[in-house]
Amino acid sequence: MYTAFFGLREKPFALSPDPRFLYLSEAHREALAHLLYGIEQGEGFIAVTGEVGTGKTTLCRTLLRRLGGEVEVAFLFNPKLSAQELLEAILVELGVELKGDRKNGSVRALIDALNQFLLEKRANGKRVLLIVDEAQGLLPETLEQIRLLSNLETESDKLIQILLLGQPELDTMLESPDLRQLRQRIGVRWRLAPLSRDETASYVRHRLQISAGAERHHVFGDAALSEVFRFSGGIPRLVNLVCDRALLAAYGESAPQIGAEYVKHAAAELRGDSEPRAPRPRWLAPLVATGVAAALVAGVAALGGPRELTRRFETWRSGASATLAASTPVPDVAAAPALATPALTSEVDLAGAAPVAAVAVEAAATSTPADASASAPARVDDLGRALALRAPGATAADAYAAVLRAWSVEASAPSPAVVSFAEIVGDLANHDLDVFSFTAADLDQLRALDHPVLLDIEAADGVRRVVALRSLGVDDAELEGVVAAGPVRVSIDELHRYWLGDAHLVWRDFEPLPELMRSGDTGDSVLWLQRALGEVGAYAGTETGRFDWATEDAVRIFQSDRGLDPDGTVGPLTKMAIYRALGRYAVPHVAQVSGAGDAG
Q1: Which end of the chain is more exposed for a tag (fewer CB within 10 A), N or C?
Q2: 3-state SS, residue 570
Q3: Residue 346: exposed, middle, or buried by beta-carbon count in 10 A (0-12, 13-18, 19+)?
Q4: pTM over 0.90, yes/no
C-alpha cells in the first residue's frame, strides 16, 4: 500500500525471515562465525538461543546460504513431535524413502535407515546437518532421542551434526540435571542479544536501503528512531512491526518523513492501548504556530494567563472549541499574516534573543510582490528571525508558487490559511511533478542534483517553515517564502545555521519508466536506459533491453561521476541526473550564480 509513496520496491519490514535483509550486528556476526566454525569443525551439538524476534531463524537461513553443497540439511520447524515422529520427519527432510519393513516401522528400524543414509553420505564426502527450530518446545523423550542421534558416528567423526535454535527457555532446559549428558556434548553455545540503540537505527536504515537503494534509507528521522528503540528494546521483530505500522500511518497523511509522533502512535496500537493518540496532522503545525504568535501579540493575560491559554488551546485542538466562553475568544488564526507587519516587530522577543526589529531585511516590508525578478533580492542577516515574522502557511504558499514558476507551471497558489505540505505534494502531482524527500542532504548534493527544492528551515520561534531554494551559489543562496515581497539572499553560513538537512526535491519523470530499475529487469524501459547511458558516454554495450551486468556497471559509472551512491539501481535521483545529462529535457536550474533564479 505505502511502498510506491515512499519510493520502495517492496515492504522493508516484512516479518518473513528473508536473508537478504539480514543486518549483521556485532552479536549476529559473532553468532554466524561460531556456527560456521562449529559446522566446519564437526561439532556434534550446537545451540543458539535468544528472545523471540531476535533473528534466530533469519540467521539460520543465512547460514544455509553460506554452506556449500557438501552439506545435506534437514530443517525441522515443528519440534512438538514424539521420538518416532521426529525420526520420520528427519528422513522425509533428507529425502530417504522407506521401503519394506522399515515403512511404518519401529524406532529401531528408522534409526537403522538413518544410519545407512549417513554412512552413504560420509562415503561420498558429505556431511549432514539437522536443524531444530523452536527447540525449547521439544518433549523430554524427543530431546533424549536427539541426544542418542549424536551416537551415530565413525571412529573419528560424527555422522550427523545437530543445531538447536530456541528461546531462553531452552537454556533453562539445558541447565537441568536430567540433561547434563546432552549439555556436555554441546561444542558451540551462543546467546543472541538484542540490538543496541545505534544498531537499531542502523538496522532500520539497512532494511530501507535493501528495499529501495541508498536514495531512501533516511525515511525515519533521528527522533523517530529513538522511539523505535524505546518501544522495541532492540528486538528486530518488534522493530519491524512498529516501523511497518509507522510507515502506514505516515502514508495515510501523505507525510514523506517519519517523525516520532508516527512511531508513538504505532507503538500505542501495537500495545493495544484503548485509545491511541493519533499523530498530529501536518496541516495543524502552521495553525499551532499562528495561534501562539497571535496570542503573544494580543496579550496572554487577556485570556487568563499562560495556563488558561494552554487549556483553551488543547480544547480547541481536540475539536471542542465550541465550548469555550464567548467572553474570552481564542485569537483568530486567520489573521496570522498580519504578524509580518513592522508595527508588531518591536513587541515580540523571539527565542529570548534581541528584539525582532533588529532583523536586517532590506526593503522587504515595503516592497510589493508583483515581480520577483524586478529588483535585486533583499539581504537577510538573520534567517531564523526573519522567518519567525511570517505565518508558516504563508511561507509554504509562497514557496509552493516559486517551484511552480520554476517549472513554468501556471497555477494559483492556495490560501496561506489552508496550505500544507501534503496539499503541496498532491497539487504538484496534478502537474506531473513528483517530490523526493530526504533528511540528510547537504548543499553539495543539491548543487549536483540541480533541481528546484523545498527546504525545511527551523525559525527562531522553534517552528519549521517551508521555503523554496531559488538559486544556490558558492557563497550565497536565494530563498523564496521568507518575506512576502519576494526572494531574499542569505549567506551559506546563515543557511547552515537554521537548515537541518531536510530537503524535498521537486522533479519530473519525463519518461514512462518504472519507479526503480535494477539488474534482471527487461523491456522498453531498460532499452531506453541503455540508449540514454550510451548518449552520455557511460554505456558502450549492445542495446539488448536486458538489465545485465554491463548495464549495471554503466549505471554505477554514471552514478559515481555525478556524486551519487553507485548502487547500480536506477531510482529517482539517478533518473534526475540522466534527464539533466541528456540535455533535451526542460529541467530548471538552481546551482547557479544568484540572480538567475526562475530558470525554466
Answers
A1: N
A2: strand
A3: exposed
A4: no
Rounded to an integer, what distance in angstroms lies between the CA atom of residue 270 and that of residue 504?
Answer: 31
Phi, psi of 286 (to 5 degrees): -60, -35
Q: Cell digits for 217? A: 534509507
Give the per-residue pLDDT at 339: 31
Question: Quick one: CA dihedral 558, 564, 569, 571, positive or negative?
Answer: negative
Distance CA 317, CA 357 (A): 31
CB count in 10 Å sphere of residue 36: 14
Q: From the CA atom positions of the chain, what is the Rg in Å?
A: 31
Supply the pLDDT for residue 26. Answer: 81
CA distance 216 to 573: 10
Give the containing element (helix H, strand E) for 191: strand 186-192
Cβ–Cβ < 8 Å for 67, 39: yes
E-strand stretches of 111-153 = 127-132
Quote the DSSP letter at residue 194.
P
Task: Please report, as a single letter, which amino acid is at residue 132.
Answer: V
What are the Cα distances from residue 502, in Å, to 4, 438, 441? Answer: 20, 6, 6
Q: Cell numbers 556524486 correspond to what residue? A: 563
Distance separating alpha carbons of residues 409 and 588, to the nearest angstrom = 12
Low-confidence residues of the chain, pLDDT below 70?
Answer: 1, 17, 19, 99-105, 213-217, 273-375, 411-423, 439-440, 592-600
DSSP 8-class letter at 434 = E
Identify which of 480, 368, 361, 472 has the alpha carbon closest to the alpha carbon of residue 413.
Answer: 480
* Whole-number pLDDT of residue 209: 85
Contacts of residue 205, Cβ cutoff 8 Å, sequence gap at least 6: 217, 218, 220
pLDDT tens sequence across 114-135 = 888 999 888 888 889 999 988 8
3-state secondary structure at position 399: helix
E strand or H helix that includes residue 582: helix 572-582
Give the separation between CA 481 and CA 259, rounded to whole angstroms: 24
In one letter, which amino acid is 78? N
| 67 burial type by CB count under 10 A (0-12 exposed, 13-18 middle, 19+ buried) | middle
Residues forming beta bridges with residue 546, ordered by sequence position: 522
Residues whose CB is less than 8 angstroms from the CB of residue 472 and which lie 6 or more positions away in sequence, other chains included: 443, 446, 447, 478, 590, 591, 592
CA distance readout (Å), 301 to 297, 306, 307, 347, 353: 11, 7, 10, 15, 22
Residue 326: Cβ-neighbour burial (10 angstroms; 0-12, 13-18, 19+): exposed
Grid look-up 518416532 returns 84
- 536-574 burial, b at 16+ Cβ within 10 Å, e below that, comes to bebbeeeeebbbbeebbebbbbbbeebebbbbbbbbbbb
Angstrom distance (rounded) from CA 348 to CA 261: 30
Give me the domains of the chain, ranges plus CATH numbers: 26-192 (3.40.50.300), 197-271 (1.10.8), 285-338 (no CATH), 347-507 (3.90.70.10), 524-582 (1.10.101.10)
Rounded to a whole number, what is the largest CA-CA distance in the chain?
102
Q: Residues 433, 439, 440, CA angle at the centre, nearest 5°?
A: 120
